[in-house]
């Protein structure tokens, strides 16, 4: 007799797989390891920032025949044919990409704010690099957008990818997304505090001690990396300013109010422009082409409408342009930016908001000197306050913009005044509008998100995971006595009734049915309640709680949305307890408890 063959020995684990398991265990259990991971994310993100910047600068030089030391928006003029060809071809390439995405029914990319607010920090690395490439194309051909949206998308996508590979907890994954964004913005502006507070205020939606280590690590490493490789591409050089006085504050608060009015108007105009363009018969692939033609036409008036506006900002700060010329620059830049975004070019308004805010501040300062020369604040302070307040309206984050001023001027007295003006602008925009540009665009897409605070757990806490399956049922045509015989007291609190086709026909209280037994004749369906109210499996907990409040019911049936057959029942007390537990966990996570 042949002895049975011995089983094959288990395949040895690969060194790479064992290393990944070890890294996962360390990252999930040690806070310092999370800081190290954030530093790695910052290094990679800042390298991508430098590469994208250098590629855009070289494209500008090649396409528009610029000198190596001249920024696109600061040149005297551009060749109309070059602008027309670049913006048309660039728009066509982006339009074809969007048409391909829609034809294949590929879902749109998730930005860092949406990822942290609704998805627990989960982003697609592939989609992030696609957005980065599209942003690079848009800026390279001269569309009136900045690269910072691509920077943060790529940086956050790298953080999310690494966090998912390490199987990090929800909050730790969100922190790595924030660290990637911090590295991108901090590296772009050479400002670690600006990058960190951009992550706290815009991407994470809150500040906590637990978040400080990873976010600051990502931002600092990002700044050091860009400085080592090529220097901060968006670093702003500001003139020296005079000492602030208390009498200057009211004037800056008025400037904040002007920034809010102009910024909110621009955001509403952006939504209206996008809807108007979508309502036209212009196909998706041709919309960026039309937008490119419009921006090219504006570029023949002034090249300041092209690109992010870095060169134009520096030029406008030092040049002695008349108020009318500055007002024209501001209006044309705003129109060009809105056209670019509405037509389908990719990019951000971070730097564009700084450009427009600085121009608004210079106009305001010059007008104040002309009207009230004795009470007028320093025009340079007006420029800085305009940058901060308009940036707060568009980007959000008063401390982000205030630290940007501090890190570029090193003047704490000016920073105090700018912080005050930025806070006033933030309060005004929250009271009158409630959105930044990123959350406003999410709102236009149907997402009611006002910040990056983690509310994704609400949509993830769904009825199908909370309901009790296989609820007791009874035919609706039973008489009351027969119903009571089949459902004695204590067998169930409620019984779901069904019609001949097995569809939902209401809920009956067992206790109420027994109370009417032998006292009234008729079908048990006469005692049914909540005939027209039910839940569906994919309904989130917040919506379910609203239905419970409206009906004042203790239990509601859960139906198959297609057949209307009962598949479960949900108790209000259990739903409220689970909702409270998840809300408490979200609060503790936000504060690092």
**In sequence order, what are the helices and strands, one letter per element?**
HHHHHHHHHHHHHHHHHHHEEHEEHHEEH
Tally of helical segments:
23
CATH class of the largest domain: Mainly Alpha
Strand segment tally: 6
Termini separation: 67 Å
Strand order of the largest sheet: 1-6-5
Count of structural domains = 3
Percent of sequence in beta strands: under 5%
Going by helix content, strand content and strand pairing, the class is mainly alpha
Give the overall average pLDDT.
Answer: 85
The percent range for helix content is 55-70%
Uncertain segments are none
Shape: elongated
Mind telling me which CATH architecture of the largest domain this is? Orthogonal Bundle
Q: The CATH topology of the largest domain is what?
A: Clc chloride channel
CATH superfamily label of the largest domain = Clc chloride channel
Rg computed from alpha carbons, rounded to a whole number of angstroms: 30 Å
Question: Could you explain the architecture of this structure?
Answer:
- This protein has 593 residues and is mainly α.
- It folds into three domains: 17-229, Orthogonal Bundle (Clc chloride channel), CATH 1.10.3080.10; 248-449, Clc chloride channel, CATH 1.10.3080.10; 457-589, CBS-domain (Roll).
- It is built from 23 helices and six strands.
- The protein has helices spanning 15-29, 31-64, 80-103, 112-118, 125-140, 148-165, 170-189, 192-204, 209-229, 248-279, 287-299, 310-318, 323-343, 350-371, 379-395, 398-409, 412-432, 437-444, 456-460, 480-486, 510-516, 541-551, 572-590, and strands at residues 468-469, 473-475, 494-498, 504-509, 555-559, 566-571.
- A three-stranded antiparallel β-sheet has the order 1-6-5.
- Helix 16 packs antiparallel against helix 17 (412-432).
- The mean pLDDT is 85.
């Amino acid at each position: 007799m042949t002895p049975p063959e011995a089983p094959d020995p288990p395949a040895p684990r690969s060194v790479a797989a064992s290393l990944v398991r070890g890294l996962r265990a360390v990252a999930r259990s040690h806070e310092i390891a999370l800081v190290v991971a954030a530093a790695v994310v910052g290094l990679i993100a800042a390298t991508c920032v430098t590469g994208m910047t250098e590629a855009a600068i070289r494209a500008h030089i090649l396409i528009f025949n610029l000198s190596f030391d001249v920024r696109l928006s600061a040149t005297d003029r551009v060749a109309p044919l070059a602008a027309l060809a670049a913006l048309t071809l660039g728009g066509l390439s982006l339009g074809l990409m969007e048409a391909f995405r829609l034809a294949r029914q590929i879902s749109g990319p998730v930005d860092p704010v949406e990822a942290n607010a609704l998805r627990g920090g989960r982003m697609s690395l592939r989609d992030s690099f696609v957005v980065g490439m599209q942003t690079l194309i848009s800026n390279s051909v001269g569309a009136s957008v900045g690269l910072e949206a691509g920077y943060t998308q790529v940086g956050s996508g790298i953080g999310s990818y690494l966090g998912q590979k390490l199987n990090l907890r929800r909050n730790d994954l969100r922190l790595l997304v924030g660290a990637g964004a911090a590295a991108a913005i901090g590296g772009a502006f050479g400002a670690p505090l600006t990058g960190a507070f951009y992550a706290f205020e815009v991407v994470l939606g809150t500040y906590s001690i637990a978040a400080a280590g990873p976010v600051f690590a990502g931002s600092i490493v990002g700044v050091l990396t860009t400085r080592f490789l090529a220097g901060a591409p968006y670093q702003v050089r500001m003139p020296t300013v005079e000492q602030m006085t208390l009498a200057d504050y009211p004037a800056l608060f008025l400037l904040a109010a002007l920034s809010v009015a102009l910024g909110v108007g621009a955001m509403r105009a952006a939504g209206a422009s996008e809807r108007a363009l979508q309502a036209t018969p212009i196909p998706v692939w041709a919309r960026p082409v039309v937008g490119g033609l419009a921006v090219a036409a504006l570029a023949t008036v002034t090249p300041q409408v092209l690109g992010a506006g870095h060169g134009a900002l520096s030029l406008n700060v030092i040049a002695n342009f008349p108020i009318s010329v500055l007002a024209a620059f501001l209006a044309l830049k705003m129109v060009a930016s809105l056209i670019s975004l509405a037509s389908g070019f990719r990019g951000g308004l971070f730097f564009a908001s700084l450009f427009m805010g600085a121009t608004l501040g210079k106009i305001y300062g010059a007008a104040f000197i002309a009207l009230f020369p004795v009470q007028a604040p320093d025009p340079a302070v007006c420029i800085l306050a305009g940058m901060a307040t308009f940036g707060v309206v568009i980007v959000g984050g008063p401390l982000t913009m205030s630290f940007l001023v501090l890190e570029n001027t090193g003047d704490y007295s000016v920073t105090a005044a700018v912080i005050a003006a930025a806070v006033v602008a933030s309060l005004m925009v929250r009271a009158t509008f409630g959105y930044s540009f990123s959350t406003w665009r999410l709102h236009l897409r149907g997402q009611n998100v006002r910040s990056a605070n983690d509310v994704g757990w609400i949509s993830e806490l769904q009825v199908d995971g909370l309901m009790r399956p296989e609820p007791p049922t009874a035919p609706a045509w039973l008489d009351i006595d027969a119903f009571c015989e089949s459902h004695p007291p204590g067998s169930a609190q409620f019984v779901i009734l069904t019609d001949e086709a097995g569809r939902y026909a209401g809920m009956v209280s067992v206790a109420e049915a027994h109370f009417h037994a032998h006292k009234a004749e008729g079908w048990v369906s006469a005692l049914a309640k909540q005939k027209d109210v039910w839940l569906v499996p994919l309904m989130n907990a917040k919506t379910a709680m609203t239905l419970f409040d409206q009906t004042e019911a203790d239990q509601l049936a859960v139906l198959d949305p297609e057949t209307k057959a009962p598949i479960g029942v949900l108790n209000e007390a259990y739903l409220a307890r689970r909702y409270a537990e998840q809300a408490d966990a979200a609060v503790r996570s936000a504060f690092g408890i």
